[in-house]
Amino acid sequence: MRGQCASAEAEVVAEAAVAALGEHAGVLGRVSGGNILECFASVADPRDRRGIRHRLPTILGLCVAAVLSGSKTLVDITDWIKVASQQVLAAFDARRDRDGVYHPPSRDTVTRLFAALGAQGLADGVGAWLAGEARLGPVAFPVAGPVLLPGVGFDGKAMRGAIGEDGQIPYLLAAATHGTGSVVIAERLVGAKSNEVPSVEPLLRQIGPALAGCVLTMDALHTVRSHAELIVGELTAHYVMTVKENTPNLFNRIDAIDWAVVPVAHTTTEVGHGRQEKRTIQVVDAPEDLGFPHAAQVFLIERYITRTVRRRVKDKGKGERKYKKVRVKSAVAVLGVTSLGSREAAPEHLATYVRGHWSIENKIHWVRDVTFNEDASQIKTGSRPRVMATLRNLVIGLIRQAGHTKIAATIRHIRNNPHLLLPILGLSQPQNTPSDQHKRLCA
User: CA within 20 to 30 Å of 171's CA: 4, 52, 261, 355, which one?
Assistant: First the structure.
């Protein structure tokens, strides 16, 4: 009777919380049908099967729920799990005693699991699940005409709060989808005494068939022949690469084109944040002697930026320093090469791919640094820093795939309205759960 009353009370509170959110409530549910427990189904459990009281998906699911509720450190996560409600523990299938009361995993259990867990295996499982939820899959070819295809960008991030086995700061190479719904679909640790370039091919093969027909974007560091051969020849995908002086032969051949006679094919202008930016793109067919695999078109993107800044000037009359606003202009030119022909990508599409490449930096890495304070993390050694990074990637993906674009604001909504937590995780509100001891018991 007590459980039924508590459940009814929880339903009323949940409905009131959703109603109070108004327009925000609709974006806090899962868009697709998967739930968070399925995400960890393929992750290997490093623990001895004897004595296990909580399943691996249960513990990791509760950790994700804690991060989604605003926990930023491992201590915050374990503290949140310790006081999790009976409804939350029941939804994650926590251990239940003879009296029907659910018990959370202890702090030591969570800490030991983080230390023993295979970080790469967890990242692979989470990435594959997010890719499936994002419906990233083979695109039908050939296309009837120029069309914007799914984009995937590659970029690295230093984990400045951690220390690797070699005493150096670990570096992670990630692949993320383009656009406002950017999510990480794969991530690998860059080896010691190495750089990002050798890690790209294993990362691409890890994602595999899901990249067929997609457009892969990367900065000039990764503009190498072997990557182009792999992307087009083996993965049946396309590439859009920027070209700089680190590849002098390719750069000089594209730069030698008489761009002055090539008309501007597309122009965009944006105003905001104290700056005005004009972007133009010129596109021509790739020269036959370019010597780069599968090159179909080359392009030149120019950016003209006007910023309003405050500069200090000296008032000679009074001897005081004052500020005045001045407009500063700058221009940047970027060359590029793509395997997309004119029948497959118009100039505006190429400009979109180049701009979309920075989604991984602006919408993933920046969010982890600013919203989750990753660089200030005190978890420094072993697999724990990577496990935390993967959980943050997953939380960002859950929020984005639920249709929300503001990560910090969504976390605040969930923290202030706990009944919104389970829907975004794809879990249903359990029925007939015991009431929490700290809540008023029903008569």
Answer: 355
**Which residue's structure tokens are 């926990």?**
71
Decide if 348 is inside a domain.
Answer: no
Q: Give dist(CA 359, CA 177) in Å, integer.
A: 8
Range of the structural domain that residue 264 is part of: 243-338
304 and 397 fall within a common domain:
no
Instruction: Please name the residue that has the structure tokens 């920046």.
Output: 366
- In angstroms, the Cα distances linking 186 to 76, 131, 172, 402 are 26, 9, 10, 20
Query: Over the chain, what is the mean pLDDT?
Result: 84
For 386-440, what is each residue's pLDDT tens digit? 999 999 999 999 999 888 889 999 999 999 988 889 999 988 888 777 776 544 3
Q: Kindly report the number of other CB atoms within 10 A of residue 116's CB atom.
A: 12
Please tell me the distance from the alpha carbon of residue 155 to that of residue 306, in angstroms, as a whole number.
27
Q: How many domains does the chain have?
A: 2
Predicted TM-score of the model (pTM): 0.83
Q: Are residues 396 and 321 in the same domain?
A: no
